[in-house]
Amino acid sequence: MAENEQNNNDSPGSGLQSYAKWTGLGIQMMVVIGGLGYLGYRIDKANNHNIQWVAATLALAGVFISLYLIIRATKS
User: Fold this and answer.
1) By the 8 A CB rule, do 33 and 70 touch?
2) How many domains does the chain have?
């Protein structure tokens, strides 16, 4: 059974699949962090905050969510 798994990983398309997987994770990180940061920016702008604490908090939450998604993806 282990030999079949090794043969599947050595196939020519496996490198491209791995590249697509990690590229997709990077794009997903940018969308999550950027989206939450932008949402926080809009909230701060609507409420006329002098310090953009909502944007910073949501961007940090986006970092933690992205880390969780990456850890979950690497376990599978």
Assistant:
1) no
2) 1
* HSE-CB of 76 using CA atoms within 13 angstroms: 6
Q: How far apart are CA 76 and CA 73, in angstroms?
A: 6
- Whether residue 58 lies inside any domain: the answer is yes
For residue 4, being part of any structural domain is answered with: no
User: 44-63 pLDDT, tens per residue?
Assistant: 999 999 999 999 999 999 99
Residue 26 structural domain: 15-75
> Interhelix angle for 53-75 vs 14-46, to 10°?
160
State pLDDT tens for residues 13-22: 678 888 888 8
Please indicate, yes or no, if residue 59 is contained in any of the structural domains: yes
